[in-house]
Amino acid sequence: MRISPFVIFFSIVLTVYGLINYYIFNHAIQAFPSPSRYTGLFTTLFVFLVVSYPAGRFLERVWQSWISDLFTWVGAFWLAAMFYFFLIVLVSDMISLTGWMVPKLPALLIHPTADLKVFYLYSSIGVVVLALVLGHINALHPRIRVIDIQTGKKALGPKEVSIVMASDIHLGTIIGPRRVGRLVNTINGLKPDLVVLAGDVVDEDLKPVIRQNLGEALRKISAPLGVYAITGNHEYIGGAEAACRYLENHGITMLRDSVVSIKGMFYLAGREDRSINSFAGKKRKTLNSLLAGLDRDRPIVLMDHQPFNLEEAERQHVTLQLSGHTHYGQIWPLNYIIDAIYELGMGYKTIGNTHYYVSPGYGSWGPPVRIGHRPEIALIRLRFE
Q: What are the respective helix, strand and coil percentages of the chain, to the nearest 5?
């Protein structure tokens, strides 16, 4: 019997999640003298934080209420806190390990006293809480990134088209009515000709989106040339068919391995996300087959959620590729991993005559926190000959 990819994926994630939390707890509990009346309280609080996010996401599927929202919000912040506590504990262990090999290190670094252990614990909590507060404030204030692109190709009609791009919105419990309302108001304030949403519009589960009626806010996006979107990996994790139907019913045209001509000026192509193979057991079209038969003398704008294999678009004479997915790590120092994985983890690049832009996204997955960079909405001014 074939095991569902969902079961395998979430089993691995939960196993790693549990081991990391055990590693943190095992170090933190050592700061309390034994026996201590605070040990039980700390253990209870720690377990509550650890189970909050999985419990909240589960409850969203079976019983949505303020309780499921509470678990999700608390757990989301814990994900970021867990990451930084893990780094602190890891560095602490590396120092201790170095101490065994370099005897000249101060003894307090290798064998701290009981009082020093408590100081380390409280200091670590203070630093992490401050980082989360500042990171959350940063996440609430996206910037407008303006990109001017000279295509070098001719197009019928205007000499310039303004395209607003928003990727990785992650509609759901965390990105709710207020954030979505600000997104729509910002987009409309830019007066775009065309709006594109480059994947991960929905954050896995569709039920919180429906409960908060977030689609009605998206319906208010105003763009004379239309509003288009593509699937991302999170649409497939939560169920792409239902998510796409919901977005289509609220005024957004989904491009799923399909191409449209925008008023005869240029082509807009949208690829299915790479996750279609893992989560739906299907294969997306090759870029060559997707663009077959198009007039390559006209500009081609391509949306592909995950920015892998950038040279493919250049070989197919794509004018501009728009991607998201990376969040540029979302919280420092994960951006260094993104830079190691992707040829372009964030920002603008050209290969030959093809232009690329990878957005760090508007919303967030998990923690409503951005550290090291700001979320953004991109205003792309596409100029023709």
A: 45, 15, 35
